[in-house]
Amino acid sequence: MFKVKDNIREVLNEIKGAHEKSNFQHLSTPKLVAVSKKQNDEKVIEALDAGQKCFGENRVQEAQQRWPLKTQQYKNLEIRLIGPLQTNKVKQALNLFDVIETIDRDKLANEIANKFNENVKTKSFYIQINTGSEIQKSGIEPLHSDNFIKYCKEDLRLPVVGLMCIPPLNEEPAMHFALLKKIAERNNLKELSMGMSGDYKEAIKFGATSVRVGSAIFGSRE
Questions:
Q1: How many CB atoms neighbour CB 170 within 10 A?
Q2: In angstroms, rounded to a whole number, what is the distance separating the alpha carbons of residues 125 and 121?
């Protein structure tokens, strides 16, 4: 066994503790998104058997192989896309994921709007903000975020509920979490997907509503 169950219990306790010490303890406890990308199936099944309901995947293809059967076997699962989405995979993604966290450009937003209807599985979207303005990273530049959020919500009529970010590796994450929170408040968005295995407790201090944790649950990837 991989001790996945023990790790989940530990992470949930850490989330609860960080939340209770934060300024947001009057809100719901942040949701744990178990990042199952590139993990072997035995570990994922152990997480499912431990009662974990929400999982994050990076790639449409990998999620297609992993989840359709499991979502029939295990009730009330929520599968999120937390990695980049290519426009040619939009139709598949909308029928596979409950939440897509990575709208990061006009072309993708338009393609999603063209394919979106009440019959698709995806019910809500997050916009990815490139808080560190990193050339190699996906996401909307903070300066353009307000206009893009408005465009997605009002012009394209997409159910955008929140924002996500991945802070630069070599910078203090706190300022990036604070920036994301500020942009969300300005645009009346309630959900904040921020914080990973190394910094999720810090993210909770800044109002994260969900944290994406992989290695602290599953260990290193195969």
A1: 6
A2: 12
Mean pLDDT by 10 residues, the chain (222 residues): 89 98 97 94 96 97 96 96 97 98 98 96 98 94 98 98 96 97 98 96 98 94 64
> Can you read off the two tokens belonging to residue 115?
């394919």
Q: Cβ contacts of residue 25 below 8 Å, gap of 6+? A: 19
Looking at domain 4-218, its CATH superfamily turns out to be: Alanine racemase (3.20.20.10)
- The closest of 160, 175, 177, 187 to 211, measured between CA atoms, is 177
128 close to 165: Cβ distance less than 8 angstroms: yes
* pTM, rounded to two decimals: 0.96
Domain boundaries defined on the chain: 4-218
Burial category of 138 from C-beta neighbours within 10 Å (exposed 0-12, middle 13-18, buried 19 and up): middle
